[in-house]
């Protein structure tokens, strides 16, 4: 495309990538692509009893699956639900993609927990990055392990408020806030407003909700829109209204001590003081 | 693959399928949005596949509070039985490494469903047109051999032009470079067309030359051309055609502006 000043600029399309022409693949290319695809596979590692049970064809009995996607959602569950020693770590998912470093960092994980006294509840905290091509696979693999009869799914997720589209300008005092999206099979009452048009939800929360919609599993996503980029206690507390619903399936600590809150929410790292 | 949202699987035998290609300006998808919104079509199923980037949201064609809170997925099928019309809408980009798989999924679904014909709404980069393509209206068509006999007369009457074959290296007079089909910015359009030719699928493609930007006028152009052929709207003599813009088209270019900015 030529501009007014005579320079030539490349034109990019929002919808498609350039060069959609198929290159003739030789055997070596195909082999490399296959290996890459294998490397990008999502792997679930369960505890020995769970693995045994799954191998013998029994799925995990589950009436409530609570998934936290993102740091604030995960920390919310850590503070309000997981602080008691009442939980067993049941398994984890390992994922490799362009954003995972060489060594799995403590910050980025995907762990499954189950309360000792209620084996029908499953909590999962996902703080690692799942690439676009891994979201569907993660969802299918996890739901494949769960007994779907009478399953209810709750997803807590977060997004930047800059992604939220509204006709009236959102002043900074309105963030953080919650919005919900639920599948057709969900019959409960959401604790917040439904996500207005033209907003959409993407990422793992979307993949899970799509799966539940198509397979008629009652599920709801509570997405928190925040104006803070990193983990933040105010954002984390925005999930509090969901406690009323979650409290029906898991024992929650409605007022965690300040010590616990301090431990979970770390202050700004020294290395990111560029804009102080 | 196709999963029905109703209690019994829908019957598509002898229906016409209209679907978009995810292409430059998203024109095909916008046109399909207009069709779905205007004809008030009902969803009958989902294309549940790992080939599309996951996304979800409430009803993009909501007309009232009652139907606003209905979840929708990246690829869904709608029908209007009285028009014998089925529409597939694709709302998300195709994962690059899975585009071949997605094309195969579509072709085999079209074949197994028994559609009488499939029409793909697509677009191509306007800046890559050669001299021939810059003449006349910016619409081109492609039709597979199995659909040619049935649609030849209609296409002749509409005086549409078939998509020209262009040389791979314009300017070079090397005899080895045969003119070939080239749809830059068309996504899976070319692949879908060639696969359909190979598998004897009655498929037509409408391609609109356009550029990225505000593509709403392009969507109207494309859907009006389609209507000239398929007569989807009740009163074709009514000009301009009354297409209904869905609520999901609000704020296409961002949120409201902070008043303090000025």
UniProtKB/TrEMBL annotation, chain A:
Residues 9-36 form a coiled coil. It comes from the Eukaryota. The keyword Coiled coil applies. InterPro entries: Proteasome_assmbl_chp_1 (IPR016565). The keyword DNA repair does not apply. Pfam families: PAC1 (PF16094). GO terms for cellular component: endoplasmic reticulum; proteasome complex. Keywords: Chaperone, Coiled coil, Proteasome. GO terms for molecular function: proteasome binding. GO terms for biological process: proteasome core complex assembly. Belongs to the PSMG1 family. This is Proteasome assembly chaperone 1. It comes from Gymnodraco acuticeps (Antarctic dragonfish). The gene is psmg1.
TrEMBL record, chain B:
It is found in: Nucleus. SUPFAM superfamilies: Cgl1923-like. One of its GO terms (biological process) is proteasome assembly. Keywords: Chaperone, Nucleus, Phosphoprotein, Proteasome. GO terms for cellular component: cytosol; nucleus; proteasome complex. It holds the Pfam family PAC2. Belongs to the PSMG2 family. Forms a heterodimer with PSMG1. The PSMG1-PSMG2 heterodimer interacts directly with the PSMA5 and PSMA7 proteasome alpha subunits. Chaperone protein which promotes assembly of the 20S proteasome as part of a heterodimer with PSMG1. The PSMG1-PSMG2 heterodimer binds to the PSMA5 and PSMA7 proteasome subunits, promotes assembly of the proteasome alpha subunits into the heteroheptameric alpha ring and prevents alpha ring dimerization. PANTHER family: PROTEASOME ASSEMBLY CHAPERONE 2. This is Proteasome assembly chaperone 2. It comes from Gymnodraco acuticeps.
């Amino acid at each position: 495309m030529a501009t007014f000043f005579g320079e030539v600029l490349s034109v990019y399309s929002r919808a498609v990538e350039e060069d959609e022409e198929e290159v003739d693949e030789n055997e070596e290319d195909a082999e490399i692509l296959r290996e890459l695809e294998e490397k990008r596979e999502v792997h679930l590692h369960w505890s020995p009893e769970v693995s045994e049970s799954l191998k013998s064809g029994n799925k995990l009995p589950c009436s409530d699956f609570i998934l936290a996607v993102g740091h604030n959602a995960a920390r919310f569950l850590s503070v309000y639900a997981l602080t008691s020693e009442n939980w067993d770590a049941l398994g984890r998912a390992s994922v490799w993609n362009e954003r995972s470093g060489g060594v799995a960092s403590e910050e980025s994980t995907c762990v499954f927990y189950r309360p000792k006294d209620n084996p029908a509840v499953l909590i999962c905290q996902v703080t690692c990055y799942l690439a676009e091509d891994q979201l569907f696979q993660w969802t299918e693999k996890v739901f494949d392990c769960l007994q779907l009869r009478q399953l209810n799914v709750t997803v807590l997720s977060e997004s930047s408020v800059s992604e939220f589209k509204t006709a009236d300008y959102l002043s900074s005092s309105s963030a953080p806030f919650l919005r919900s999206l639920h599948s057709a099979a969900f019959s409960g009452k959401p604790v917040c407003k439904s996500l207005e048009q033209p907003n959409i939800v993407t990422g793992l929360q979307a993949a899970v909700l799509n799966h539940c919609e198509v397979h008629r599993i009652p599920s709801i996503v509570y997405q928190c829109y925040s104006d803070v980029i990193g983990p933040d206690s105010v954002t984390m507390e925005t999930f509090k209204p969901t406690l009323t619903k979650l409290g029906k399936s898991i024992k929650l600590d409605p007022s965690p001590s300040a010590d616990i809150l301090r431990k979970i929410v770390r202050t700004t790292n020294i290395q990111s003081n560029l804009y102080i | 693959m196709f999963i029905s949202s109703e209690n019994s699987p829908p019957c598509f035998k002898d229906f016409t399928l209209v679907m978009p290609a995810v292409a430059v300006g998203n024109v095909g998808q916008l046109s399909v949005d207009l069709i779905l919104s205007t004809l008030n079509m009902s969803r009958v199923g989902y294309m549940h596949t790992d080939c599309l980037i996951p996304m979800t949201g409430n009803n993009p064609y909501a007309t009232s509070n009652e139907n606003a809170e209905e979840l929708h997925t990246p690829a869904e099928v709608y029908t209007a039985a009285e028009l014998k019309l089925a529409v597939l809408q694709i709302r998300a980009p195709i994962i690059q490494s899975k585009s071949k798989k997605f094309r195969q999924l579509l072709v085999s679904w079209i074949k197994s469903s028994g559609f009488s014909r499939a029409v793909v709404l697509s677009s191509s980069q306007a800046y890559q047109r050669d001299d021939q393509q810059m003449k006349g209206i910016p619409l081109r068509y492609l039709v597979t051999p199995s659909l040619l006999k049935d649609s030849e007369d209609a296409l002749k009457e509409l005086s549409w032009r078939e998509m020209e074959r262009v040389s791979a290296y314009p300017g070079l007079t090397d005899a080895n470079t045969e003119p070939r089909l080239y749809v830059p910015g068309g996504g899976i359009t070319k692949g879908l067309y060639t696969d359909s030719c190979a598998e004897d699928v009655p498929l037509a493609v409408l391609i609109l030359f356009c550029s990225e930007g505000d593509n709403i006028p392009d969507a109207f152009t494309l859907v009006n051309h389609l209507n000239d052929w398929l007569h989807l709207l009740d009163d074709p003599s009514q000009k301009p055609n009354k297409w209904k813009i869905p609520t999901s088209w609000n704020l296409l270019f961002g949120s409201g502006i902070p008043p303090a900015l000025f």
